[in-house]
Amino acid sequence: MAFEELLNDPVIQKYLHELVGPSGMPVAAAPPDGEVTDEELAEELGLELNDVRRALFILYENDLATYRRLRDEDSGWLTYLWTFEYENIPEQLEEEMERLLEALEERRQYERENEFYLCNNCQVRFEFGEAMEFGFECPECGGPLETMDNERLIDAMDERIEKLREELHVEDGK
User: Fold this and answer.
1) Pick from 150, 117, 111, 120: which is nearest to 136 by CA?
2) How many CB atoms lie within 10 A of CB 59?
3) What is the model's pLDDT at position 34?
4) CA atoms within 13 A on the CB side of 168
5) Are the CB atoms for 81 and 67 separated by under 8 Å?
6) Whole-angstrom Cα distance, residue 79 to residue 30?
7) N or C: which end of the chain has fewer CB within 10 A?
8) Closest among 97, 11, 92, 103 to 58, alpha carbons compared
């Protein structure tokens, strides 16, 4: 998939924005063909060099950019030539979704296996053991801790898990 196609996808735009933030988004959204230096990118985009370098390093850490170093024979200075590797984005998004699915399944299990109590004044939630330690009174305000029904939360997790499984073409692992 070409850079242009990838960058027109709102999911990929959001992914890149989450990685590099608003100051790095111009760098992520304008990948040049071939190699480019950080200085060239900063000048071309009208950005601070540090913002460009920060974005490039984040892209590098996430396997979306590579570099090669050249040493100037006369001055000994190193020049970094950057190449963008956006063809890895779909794979990485899928891996992120798999991690999210696993985390949601673990959290759902935790929600199902525990009993919770809530202070309606402070909106602080406690597990049964904690609530018992506090004598079913909120340690912040002294108000009573009441049983919390977390079925709506579990239902919302079930829906999200199902959607992720459908997107990933994964069967229920129960």
Assistant:
1) 117
2) 24
3) 84
4) 22
5) yes
6) 20
7) C
8) 92
From residue 14, alpha-carbon distances to 35, 56, 98, 112 in Å are 25, 17, 17, 32
Question: 142 is written with which tokens?
Answer: 């002294």
**107-155 pLDDT tens trace:** 999 999 999 999 999 999 999 999 999 999 999 999 999 999 999 999 9
CA–CA gap between residue 100 and residue 34 (Å, rounded) = 33
| pLDDT score for 1 | 41
Residue with tokens 């040049």: 32
Residue 19 CA from chain centroid, whole number: 7
Rounded-to-integer distance, Cα 107 and Cα 13, Å: 28
Q: Which residues of 20-45 are buried (b: 16+ CB within 10 A; e: fewer)?
A: beeebebbbeebeeeebbbeebbeee
Distance from C-alpha of 84 to C-alpha of 65, rounded to nearest angstrom: 4
CA dihedral 21→26→29→30, nearest 10 degrees, is: -150
Write down the residue that tokens 């090669």 correspond to.
68
Q: H-type helices in the chain, by residue range? A: 3-8, 10-29, 38-45, 49-61, 89-113, 128-133, 151-168
CA-closest candidate to residue 2, choices 31, 26, 27, 38 = 31
Residue 145's pLDDT is: 96
Amino acid letter for position 94: E
